[in-house]
Amino acid sequence: MEQLLRFEPAIRLACFLGVFAAMALWETLAPRRARLLSRWARWPSNLAVSTLNNLLLRLLLPTTAVGLAAAGGQQGWGLLNHYPLPAWAAVVLSVTALDLIIYFQHILFHAVPALWRLHRMHHADLDLDVTSGSRFHPLEIVLSMGVKLGAVAALGAPATAVLIFEILLNATAMFNHSNVRLPARLDRMLRRILVTPDMHRVHHSVLPEEANSNFGFNLPWWDRWFGTYLDQPAAGHEGMTVGLEQFRTARDHWLDRMLRQPWREDRGRYTIGRQPPAAG
Q: How far apart, in whole angstroms, are the C-alpha atoms of residue 204 and residue 54?
């Protein structure tokens, strides 16, 4: 366990770099959609905010989710530490439960106007690609980590399960935000076990009824079971508009304006159950 904690940063960084490089190459060789902005116009700010978020978490929090899980195992915190299961079952149950919690958290960030103001920085991206999966406002990242730490402590998830979940969540976020083309038949098959790029892209539509669907990041079952699944965008994947109507200039995607988005005007806002005001 001590070795797991010791090498956690290296393990996570290696997985991140490997998946990032693979998806960036795939996007270059087989893109799904034409770009509105070049990589040079978007990537510096998207990667900068991702780096800022990692530094902020290290400064503000005394432990990672994996570290908290290890401490919980030693101290006997959480549900699974009171009802012992085979190691493999505890891992599977923990990864699945944490994914379900992230699904409901995602819905919450759409449903509560104050949280939507933070989350909309993620949705404002005019193109989806591998960098979009880590484009989140720092305040949202801090709140999300608080939810994750609480879930890990309450569940009593094993440290190994939390590390697996963190790697899966990061890898699948890069995968399902990527601008890659999958054969339709393969996409249909993968959707049974994994959120695909075509499935998640619908969630980034400029249309509220499409953006308020397909909330899953990793496992696709929650959207189907809880009635938030939408198979395809009305305009098709090549014809749909990605982003938000109020942040559509290249200048809106510089880092300084991205960080100020929660406090900018709310014209065209939408959260679950609230439609944009009629033009006039």
A: 24
Give the Cα separation of 163 and 64 in Å (integer).
10
User: Hey, what amino acid is at 263?
Assistant: W
Confidence band for 1, pLDDT divided at 50, 70 and 90: low
For the chain, give every domain's residue range.
2-263
Length of the chain: 280
- In angstroms, the CA 58 to CA 37 distance is 32
Q: Please identify which residue in the block is written with the tokens 């290290």.
A: 58
Provide the b/e sequence for 8-21 (b: ≥16 CB within 10 Å). beeebeebbeebbe
Q: Which residue type occupies 232?
A: Q
What is the distance between the alpha carbons of residues 26 and 246, in angstroms, rounded to a whole number?
Answer: 30
Q: Tokens 């033009």 belong to which residue?
A: 279
Q: Which tokens is 40 given?
A: 């040079």
Extract the tokens encoding 107. Answer: 């819905």
How far CA 41 is from CA of 121, 136, 169, 252, 265, in Å, comes to 16, 17, 26, 11, 23
Phi and psi torsions of 279, nearest 5°:
-70, 145
Which of 151, 144, 150 has the alpha carbon at shortest distance from 97? 151
Q: What is the pLDDT of residue 280?
A: 38
